[in-house]
Design brief:
19% strand, alpha/beta, 5-stranded mixed beta sheet, globular, 158 residues, Glutaredoxin
Length: 158
Amino acid sequence: MNKKSEVVYFKYHHLSKWIFIFFILFSCSGKTNISKDFDNYLAAFDESIPESEHFYVILSKYACQSCLKSLLPIFVEKSKNYKQDSFTYIVANSSKYSSLENLKAKVINDKKELISMLNMNISDFTIIKTNKHKIIKVLNFGTTDYDKFLLFLNTELR
């Protein structure tokens, strides 16, 4: 190998290490970025992630409809015993969920389904738990997750 080839190899070798280091550093701060992205999303509706504990219930048009039909009524009933200002429902089709208007919780009508553009693993029946202006958990419940869903209700919504 000639001297010029050695220099190129040396520079490339170190460059690849730096790229790897930056990749690791930026991937470690994922939750903060997700919180920031979600807060920016909420800003489009004049909202922001609050300081106190809060639950966002996502009713996406891409969600499993049988999941919503079976889990949403249980969630609504259980949440009635909890502070209603701790909930926000984000819905893609507000006419489909008109019963939510009877609740004291906030309802965000996301007609353009902007929530689905965020990299937050939103599917089926999704609940986002926040606290101190950050996302704590993103929970997805399908029809086979009934026990997991009940455990969530009994531990989080005491």
